[in-house]
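Case study B.
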Amino acid sequence: MTLAPAASPVPSAARRVVAVHLDNVHKSFGAGKIAVHAIRGVSMKVHGGEFVMLVGPSGCGKTTLVSIISGVLDADSGKAEVFGVDWRSLSRDGQTIRRGEYIGFVFQQFNLISTVTALENTAVPLLIRGVNRGEALDRAAECLKLVGLGERTRALPSQLSGGMQQRVAIARALVGRPRVLICDEPTAALDARTGQQVIELIKSGTRELTGGAQDRCVIVVTHDNRIFHYADRIEEMEDGKIKERPSDLVMEESRRVHDYTLDPPDEPAPK
Amino acid sequence: MFRIAVRMLLGDKSKYLSLVLGLSFAALLIAQQGAIFLGLMQRATGPLQNVGQPDFWVADPKTRYVGEVRPLSESDLLRVRSIPGVAWAEPFYAARALCELPDTSFKTVQLFGIDRTTFIGQPPMMIAGSIEDLRMPDAVIIEESAIPKLGGVGIGDTLRLNDQRAVVVGICRATSGFESNALVFTTFQNALRYVPQPRNSITFILVKSKDGADKAQVAAAIDAIPTLKAFTGEELVARNTEFIIVETGIGINFGITVMLGFIVGVIVSASIFYQFTVENLRNFAVLKAVGARSRLLIGMILLQAFLVAIVGFGIGVGLAGVFSWGARRPGAELAAYFPWPLLIISFFAMLFCVGAGSVLSLRRVLTLEPAVVFK
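Model:
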């Protein structure tokens, strides 16, 4: 369904590694008459180097789908692979370890630990992996510098603005150099200008930290159509399914309906 | 990550304070109830609290409670004195007497009769007058907390004990018994005059072994006399305590109180700690999502539990200690005894309390779906 714009510098899908592969994934909550079928047979692939947005109305299953992709939720049936390994083939601990190594998260509500500093929040994924504390804090400081918070490493989340907190969350997501970065509504709790800065940061930060490696991808769940143009590809969901509609059409429609952006880029947004 | 766990614990001052205060209250409850129970048990040992000189207290083998004894005879005393290895053996008399006060009211007093030559069995501390003054006619020494109970008497004042004249010649400091009666010390002979006894009149024979003598052999020799048994102070305290617990309602009633204190402590600390964990569930979910394995989360929660247990225990036991210290002042009606084993028991009780809370918390965290981070 979805094609990257022709100008994209990303190599063709055929030559790229498949980072995420969903095959006929189903997920329901509850049982019997009250069962809610959140995901109904979704199949999709995300290749290394891609920046994919998952869009759609509230309740269409976007968050459930990224929960399955990131291994925090098991699919009822179907295959959900990240770099060739199906989450359901792993034990709970196996899933946790692989998630720590492969997945980075940016959440809508930031989810920072309120009682520890920005530096320590950023270092958490490394500390969990058992990285030496000194090294973990050094790497966390680098990431905070990358997201423009090099001077606020000692600040508690409550001493930072919403945008700054989200930047700390991005630094935390990137510090472990994840191969799949999952961002759930990263701009929803932010004003338009800050939201735009955050999505640019996700894109540039990922590139910088991974050196533009083609074996990593970013999946952004959003219904914020002001940031659609940052995507290489857009997957639109409705009622638990992926809609068969080209990305360009989704973007164009979005531009028509919402004919505004704050600080519109001079050139087409980098893809 | 353990530093992060500590920061999670200490970072929110109000939550941390409520957690620590709750646990302190639980620790106070456990330790203080225990101390009162032990204090009552200690008071129930009567003269055993104040007499420290003898190695053995000789009494009838069936003796179970210091307030319920079969008197011994003069010949029993002589038999004990004749045993090799006995340095001295002196009679000790304990009985209740009625003291008439100048205002025509009356009080029951606990009367102790001690040997007028050696003063074995004397009160632990004289604070006015001299123990030697007991050799004067009708002389008695009263315990300082008895002064207000006996109408503010002082040295030189005259009392009537069982309708007999008694002259106060000294004030001592000693620990009251179970009934909190005023303590009055006099000579063995005077005591018999105030509270006459039939043929046998000795409550206990106090025995000291000779230096270098085998105490076990001395005790065995005394035990060989069919009507006598040599008890160490500890043995007699143990029998006394067992009697109080088993034969009186104190054991069951106070046991229930102590148990309630413990149960309330468990519930309070468990619920507070569980609440603390619940308030941090989102953090734990995030940690799970970004790769924290169960054993790491278990370690973090147990560390938090251990830290609050230590701090809560310290404050709670400190308060219980202050409470017990108040009970130590002369004349205190409050019975509280805080020996170090109670400290250890309280500590493990506290660990159990928080451990119970941790189990609930761990269950909640370990079954937590990391997917909640997206909600």
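Chain B touches chain A through 25 residues (CB under 8 Å). The remaining cases will be described in the next quarterly update.
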